[in-house]
Amino acid sequence: MPLTKPPLSTVSPGQPVTAQAWNEVLTGLSDLFDAVLAFGTGAVAVRVVIDDVVLGGASVIAVPDGEGQPIKAVPPFGDRTSHTLVGLTDGSWAVHVEAPDFEPNSVPLTVPHGETLVVELARRGTVVPDLFGIGLRSATDRLRAEGLDLDITLDTTGKELPRTSLAPEYVDAPVLVQSPAPGEVAPPDNPRVRLVVASPLRREPVVTMPSLTGLTVSEASTVLERLGLVVGTTTFQSTS
Fold first, then answer.
1. pTM across the whole model
2. Could you tell me the domains of the chain?
Protein backbone atom coordinates (compact mmCIF):
# COMPACT_ATOMS: atom_id res chain seq x y z
CA MET A 1 0.00 0.00 0.00
CA PRO A 2 1.22 3.58 -0.60
CA LEU A 3 2.65 5.36 2.42
CA THR A 4 1.15 8.85 2.95
CA LYS A 5 3.04 11.34 5.06
CA PRO A 6 0.60 13.05 7.48
CA PRO A 7 0.77 16.78 8.21
CA LEU A 8 3.23 17.36 11.06
CA SER A 9 2.87 20.20 13.58
CA THR A 10 5.34 21.41 16.18
CA VAL A 11 4.36 22.45 19.70
CA SER A 12 6.11 24.43 22.39
CA PRO A 13 6.93 22.99 25.83
CA GLY A 14 3.79 22.97 28.01
CA GLN A 15 1.49 23.47 25.04
CA PRO A 16 -1.25 20.79 24.88
CA VAL A 17 -1.63 18.56 21.81
CA THR A 18 -5.08 18.66 20.23
CA ALA A 19 -7.06 15.51 19.66
CA GLN A 20 -6.92 16.08 15.90
CA ALA A 21 -3.12 16.34 15.89
CA TRP A 22 -2.80 13.20 18.02
CA ASN A 23 -5.13 11.26 15.73
CA GLU A 24 -3.07 12.34 12.72
CA VAL A 25 0.05 10.95 14.42
CA LEU A 26 -1.70 7.64 15.11
CA THR A 27 -2.98 7.45 11.52
CA GLY A 28 0.52 8.04 10.20
CA LEU A 29 1.97 5.31 12.44
CA SER A 30 -0.75 2.89 11.34
CA ASP A 31 0.00 3.58 7.67
CA LEU A 32 3.70 3.10 8.34
CA PHE A 33 3.13 -0.31 9.93
CA ASP A 34 0.84 -1.39 7.08
CA ALA A 35 3.38 -0.28 4.46
CA VAL A 36 6.27 -2.08 6.16
CA LEU A 37 4.25 -5.26 6.61
CA ALA A 38 3.24 -5.13 2.94
CA PHE A 39 6.87 -5.57 1.96
CA GLY A 40 6.79 -9.13 3.28
CA THR A 41 9.58 -11.06 4.90
CA GLY A 42 9.97 -13.92 2.43
CA ALA A 43 13.31 -14.48 0.67
CA VAL A 44 13.93 -16.86 -2.24
CA ALA A 45 17.18 -17.78 -4.02
CA VAL A 46 16.89 -18.06 -7.81
CA ARG A 47 19.57 -19.86 -9.83
CA VAL A 48 19.58 -19.18 -13.58
CA VAL A 49 21.17 -21.97 -15.64
CA ILE A 50 21.84 -22.96 -19.24
CA ASP A 51 22.53 -26.67 -19.78
CA ASP A 52 23.11 -27.05 -16.01
CA VAL A 53 25.73 -24.27 -16.05
CA VAL A 54 25.05 -21.15 -13.97
CA LEU A 55 24.45 -18.12 -16.17
CA GLY A 56 25.49 -14.65 -15.09
CA GLY A 57 24.13 -11.32 -16.29
CA ALA A 58 20.46 -12.25 -16.06
CA SER A 59 17.60 -10.02 -14.86
CA VAL A 60 15.25 -11.66 -12.34
CA ILE A 61 11.96 -10.00 -11.38
CA ALA A 62 9.13 -11.40 -9.24
CA VAL A 63 5.57 -10.20 -9.99
CA PRO A 64 2.78 -10.90 -7.48
CA ASP A 65 -0.40 -12.61 -8.54
CA GLY A 66 -2.76 -9.77 -7.71
CA GLU A 67 -2.06 -6.44 -6.03
CA GLY A 68 1.47 -5.46 -5.17
CA GLN A 69 4.66 -4.19 -6.71
CA PRO A 70 7.20 -6.22 -8.72
CA ILE A 71 10.43 -7.01 -6.87
CA LYS A 72 13.79 -7.13 -8.63
CA ALA A 73 16.25 -9.70 -7.35
CA VAL A 74 19.67 -8.85 -5.99
CA PRO A 75 22.22 -10.28 -8.49
CA PRO A 76 24.91 -12.76 -7.39
CA PHE A 77 27.88 -11.30 -5.55
CA GLY A 78 31.02 -12.67 -3.97
CA ASP A 79 30.93 -16.46 -4.11
CA ARG A 80 27.15 -16.58 -4.46
CA THR A 81 25.77 -18.09 -7.67
CA SER A 82 22.09 -17.29 -7.14
CA HIS A 83 19.95 -14.19 -7.41
CA THR A 84 18.09 -13.27 -4.21
CA LEU A 85 14.49 -12.10 -4.02
CA VAL A 86 13.73 -10.37 -0.72
CA GLY A 87 10.58 -8.83 0.72
CA LEU A 88 8.15 -11.36 -0.74
CA THR A 89 4.73 -11.77 0.83
CA ASP A 90 3.12 -15.18 1.18
CA GLY A 91 1.15 -16.22 -1.87
CA SER A 92 1.53 -16.75 -5.61
CA TRP A 93 4.17 -15.01 -7.71
CA ALA A 94 5.59 -15.28 -11.22
CA VAL A 95 9.35 -15.05 -11.63
CA HIS A 96 10.45 -13.54 -14.97
CA VAL A 97 14.03 -14.10 -16.14
CA GLU A 98 15.74 -12.43 -19.10
CA ALA A 99 19.32 -12.45 -20.41
CA PRO A 100 20.98 -11.24 -23.63
CA ASP A 101 21.02 -13.85 -26.44
CA PHE A 102 18.58 -16.11 -24.54
CA GLU A 103 14.85 -16.67 -24.74
CA PRO A 104 13.02 -15.19 -21.69
CA ASN A 105 11.38 -17.61 -19.29
CA SER A 106 8.75 -17.29 -16.57
CA VAL A 107 8.06 -19.79 -13.78
CA PRO A 108 5.45 -19.80 -11.00
CA LEU A 109 6.53 -19.36 -7.38
CA THR A 110 4.58 -19.93 -4.19
CA VAL A 111 5.89 -18.19 -1.06
CA PRO A 112 7.02 -19.47 1.38
CA HIS A 113 9.50 -21.45 -0.72
CA GLY A 114 12.30 -23.18 1.13
CA GLU A 115 14.45 -24.43 -1.76
CA THR A 116 16.42 -22.64 -4.43
CA LEU A 117 14.27 -21.91 -7.49
CA VAL A 118 16.08 -23.07 -10.64
CA VAL A 119 15.15 -21.36 -13.92
CA GLU A 120 16.43 -22.83 -17.20
CA LEU A 121 17.03 -20.54 -20.18
CA ALA A 122 17.36 -21.56 -23.83
CA ARG A 123 19.65 -19.87 -26.30
CA ARG A 124 17.99 -17.65 -28.86
CA GLY A 125 18.60 -19.17 -32.29
CA THR A 126 18.92 -22.63 -33.84
CA VAL A 127 21.17 -25.42 -32.60
CA VAL A 128 23.48 -26.52 -35.42
CA PRO A 129 23.26 -30.30 -36.08
CA ASP A 130 26.28 -32.59 -36.42
CA LEU A 131 26.92 -32.98 -40.16
CA PHE A 132 30.29 -34.76 -40.05
CA GLY A 133 30.48 -37.56 -42.60
CA ILE A 134 27.13 -36.76 -44.20
CA GLY A 135 26.99 -36.27 -47.97
CA LEU A 136 26.75 -32.66 -49.11
CA ARG A 137 23.26 -33.02 -50.64
CA SER A 138 21.89 -34.65 -47.47
CA ALA A 139 23.65 -32.07 -45.29
CA THR A 140 22.11 -29.24 -47.29
CA ASP A 141 18.63 -30.76 -46.96
CA ARG A 142 19.05 -31.18 -43.21
CA LEU A 143 20.16 -27.56 -42.77
CA ARG A 144 17.16 -26.39 -44.73
CA ALA A 145 14.84 -28.48 -42.57
CA GLU A 146 16.34 -26.86 -39.44
CA GLY A 147 15.77 -23.37 -40.84
CA LEU A 148 19.49 -22.82 -41.50
CA ASP A 149 21.14 -21.55 -44.66
CA LEU A 150 24.24 -22.88 -46.37
CA ASP A 151 26.82 -20.12 -46.51
CA ILE A 152 30.13 -21.00 -48.20
CA THR A 153 31.15 -24.53 -49.13
CA LEU A 154 34.76 -25.41 -49.90
CA ASP A 155 36.42 -28.66 -50.80
CA THR A 156 39.76 -29.72 -49.35
CA THR A 157 41.63 -28.02 -52.21
CA GLY A 158 40.07 -24.65 -51.32
CA LYS A 159 37.70 -24.60 -54.27
CA GLU A 160 34.44 -22.76 -53.53
CA LEU A 161 31.36 -24.62 -54.67
CA PRO A 162 28.37 -22.80 -56.18
CA ARG A 163 25.26 -22.61 -54.01
CA THR A 164 22.69 -22.78 -56.79
CA SER A 165 23.85 -25.90 -58.62
CA LEU A 166 25.73 -28.89 -57.25
CA ALA A 167 28.07 -30.80 -59.53
CA PRO A 168 27.35 -34.54 -59.59
CA GLU A 169 30.76 -35.45 -58.17
CA TYR A 170 30.00 -33.39 -55.03
CA VAL A 171 26.53 -34.78 -54.26
CA ASP A 172 27.84 -37.44 -51.89
CA ALA A 173 31.05 -35.66 -50.84
CA PRO A 174 31.21 -36.10 -47.03
CA VAL A 175 31.32 -33.09 -44.72
CA LEU A 176 34.67 -32.83 -42.92
CA VAL A 177 34.43 -29.45 -41.14
CA GLN A 178 31.54 -27.16 -40.23
CA SER A 179 31.19 -23.73 -38.67
CA PRO A 180 29.45 -23.16 -36.26
CA ALA A 181 30.45 -26.43 -34.63
CA PRO A 182 27.83 -29.09 -33.78
CA GLY A 183 25.73 -28.09 -30.78
CA GLU A 184 26.47 -24.39 -31.09
CA VAL A 185 23.64 -21.94 -31.76
CA ALA A 186 23.34 -19.97 -34.97
CA PRO A 187 21.87 -16.55 -34.10
CA PRO A 188 18.55 -15.54 -35.68
CA ASP A 189 20.16 -12.63 -37.53
CA ASN A 190 22.77 -14.88 -39.18
CA PRO A 191 21.50 -18.49 -39.45
CA ARG A 192 24.27 -19.60 -41.81
CA VAL A 193 26.58 -22.61 -41.73
CA ARG A 194 29.88 -23.02 -43.58
CA LEU A 195 31.06 -26.43 -44.73
CA VAL A 196 34.25 -28.07 -45.96
CA VAL A 197 33.74 -31.30 -47.89
CA ALA A 198 36.07 -33.93 -49.29
CA SER A 199 37.35 -33.40 -52.79
CA PRO A 200 36.02 -35.98 -55.27
CA LEU A 201 38.40 -38.68 -56.40
CA ARG A 202 39.37 -38.46 -60.06
CA ARG A 203 39.77 -41.83 -61.72
CA GLU A 204 42.42 -41.68 -64.43
CA PRO A 205 42.22 -44.14 -67.36
CA VAL A 206 44.48 -47.17 -66.98
CA VAL A 207 46.25 -48.88 -69.89
CA THR A 208 47.91 -52.28 -69.59
CA MET A 209 51.39 -52.00 -71.03
CA PRO A 210 51.99 -54.61 -73.74
CA SER A 211 55.27 -56.38 -74.27
CA LEU A 212 57.34 -54.65 -76.95
CA THR A 213 60.28 -57.02 -76.82
CA GLY A 214 61.53 -58.00 -80.27
CA LEU A 215 59.67 -55.23 -82.12
CA THR A 216 61.30 -52.57 -84.19
CA VAL A 217 60.96 -48.94 -83.17
CA SER A 218 58.37 -48.39 -85.88
CA GLU A 219 56.38 -51.45 -84.84
CA ALA A 220 56.51 -50.50 -81.15
CA SER A 221 55.33 -46.94 -81.94
CA THR A 222 52.38 -48.28 -83.90
CA VAL A 223 51.29 -50.54 -81.00
CA LEU A 224 51.57 -47.74 -78.47
CA GLU A 225 49.64 -45.27 -80.63
CA ARG A 226 46.79 -47.77 -80.99
CA LEU A 227 46.56 -47.83 -77.18
CA GLY A 228 46.44 -44.04 -77.00
CA LEU A 229 49.99 -43.73 -75.76
CA VAL A 230 52.65 -41.40 -77.10
CA VAL A 231 56.23 -42.41 -77.68
CA GLY A 232 58.58 -40.22 -75.72
CA THR A 233 62.33 -40.01 -75.83
CA THR A 234 63.90 -43.02 -77.55
CA THR A 235 67.36 -44.21 -76.57
CA PHE A 236 69.29 -46.62 -78.74
CA GLN A 237 71.73 -49.02 -77.10
CA SER A 238 73.90 -51.63 -78.73
CA THR A 239 73.43 -55.18 -77.50
CA SER A 240 76.77 -56.42 -78.80
1. 0.51
2. 42-123 (2.60.40.10), 126-197 (3.30.10.20)
